[in-house]
Design goal:
Residues 62-233 form the Aminotransferase-like plant mobile domain. With 236 residues, the chain is mostly helical. It has 12 helices and 3 strands, in the order H-H-H-H-H-E-E-E-H-H-H-H-H-H-H. It has one domain (7-233). Strands 1-2-3 form a 3-stranded antiparallel β-sheet. Helix 6 (99-106) packs across helix 12. 19% of the residues are buried.
Length: 236
């Protein structure tokens, strides 16, 4: 068999250690931030607006049932990932994640407008209030020093999803169309921040994803953005 990469690269991966050095490794612990919970129930009144935004197939999939992840299988794929080529190197050949894969797996659009916008967060709180009627209050100044201060800062920075759940989990039965739209917008923000564009903490809901939902029918290419973000994560 013709090797795709020089053997020296294999010595840096778990698969080599397990086979050649007979070292025993447990499957990797998978960072996973599911959304199937009573904390943010799906409301059928959101459907027309989610459909307009082009996110309906994905949100219907993850909001009803998030799949179980096979840790050994994911570990095996991670062992065959080569950052030198940004692809998986398998015994049968080289494999990459393509836009077609994203489209087939997620149902997200891969055509349309590129999801490009400023990440400048100046004035985000005022913009959020204008868009959804409220925003998290500023954390109180903390004069404590050392580890206690760091713990409090992490807690203050990690309340985004809790804040969303506390304020937008349930849309009132007698809600006006404007209120339903607001809840639908926040629901989409919650889902895409946890599934399509998560970070390692599983606690942050970046303002820019909510900003992308200012206009429902913007025709964003959510599939292209998802693939780009996946490869971005390889560098972080």
């Amino acid at each position: 068999m013709v090797w795709l990469l020089d053997d020296v690269y294999d010595t840096k991966h778990r698969a080599y250690m397990m086979r050649e050095k007979e070292m025993k490794f447990e499957p990797l612990k998978i960072r996973y931030h599911g959304v199937s919970s009573p904390a943010m129930p799906y409301d059928e009144r959101y459907t027309p607006y989610i459909k307009q935004a082009g996110l309906l197939p994905w949100i219907q999939l993850v909001s009803r049932s998030t799949p179980n992840l096979n840790a050994p299988l994911v570990s095996a794929l991670a062992d065959r990932w080569r950052p030198e080529t940004h692809s998986f190197h398998l015994r049968t050949g080289e494999m990459i994640v393509t836009l077609e894969d994203v489209s087939l797996i997620t149902g997200l659009a891969i055509d349309g407008m590129p999801l490009c916008m400023s990440t400048d967060s100046d004035g985000w709180r005022e913009q959020m209030i204008a868009l959804i009627g409220m925003a998290p209050t500023e954390a109180e100044d903390d004069v404590e020093e050392g580890e206690e201060k760091k713990k409090r800062e992490r807690k203050a920075a990690g309340d985004a999803f809790t804040w969303i759940q506390n304020n937008f989990a349930t849309c009132p039965p007698d809600a006006t169309d404007d209120v339903i739209q607001t809840h639908a917008r926040v629901y989409m923000w919650y889902i895409v921040s946890r599934t399509l564009f998560p970070d390692s903490t599983g606690k942050n809901a970046p303002w820019m994803w909510l900003k992308a939902l200012t206009v429902f029918d913007s025709k964003w290419s959510w599939g292209s953005a998802t693939l780009a973000y996946l490869y971005r994560q390889d560098h972080t």
